[in-house]
Design a protein that fits this description.
mainly beta; five-stranded mixed β-sheet
Length: 107
C-alpha cells in the first residue's frame, strides 16, 4: 500500500514542534483491490499506541488520531492486512507492512 502520514499537518520526515502535550496524526492509505489492508496501527517510541480498523472505499482509507506526547518522540504508521498477495507473491501471507516514520521534538 501507499501510506501518507502527517503529524500536525507536517509530512513524513519533518521535525514537528508541538504546543502542549498532544499532536494530531493523519494517515492516508491507498491500495489496489487485490491487496488486503484492514487496519492501521500507530506506534510511538516503539510501543503500540492505537489500532484503527479501516474499510477501503474507492481504494483508499484515512484515520485521524490525537496522540499524547510527553517527551521527544517518533511516530510510525503501520498499514496491515492478513490476506494473501497471490498472484503477485505466490503462497505468502501479508502479516504487516511497515511504513511512514516521522520525527518529533519538544522545545
Amino acid at each position: 500500500p501507499f501510506v501518507e502520514m502527517f503529524v500536525n499537518d507536517e509530512p513524513i520526515g519533518s521535525e514537528v514542534r508541538v504546543e502542549g502535550e498532544s499532536a494530531v496524526v493523519n494517515v492516508s492509505v491507498r491500495a489496489p483491490a487485490w491487496m488486503d489492508v484492514d487496519e492501521v496501527r500507530l506506534w510511538i517510541n516503539g510501543e503500540l499506541h492505537s489500532r484503527h480498523p479501516i474499510t477501503m472505499e474507492n481504494y483508499q482509507a484515512q484515520i485521524d488520531d490525537e496522540v499524547s506526547l510527553e517527551k521527544d518522540s517518533w511516530v510510525v504508521a503501520e498499514a496491515r492486512g492478513d490476506g494473501s498477495l497471490f498472484p503477485v507473491f505466490a503462497k505468502r501471507k501479508v502479516f504487516s507492512i511497515f511504513f511512514s516514520i516521522v520525527s518529533r521534538s519538544f522545545n
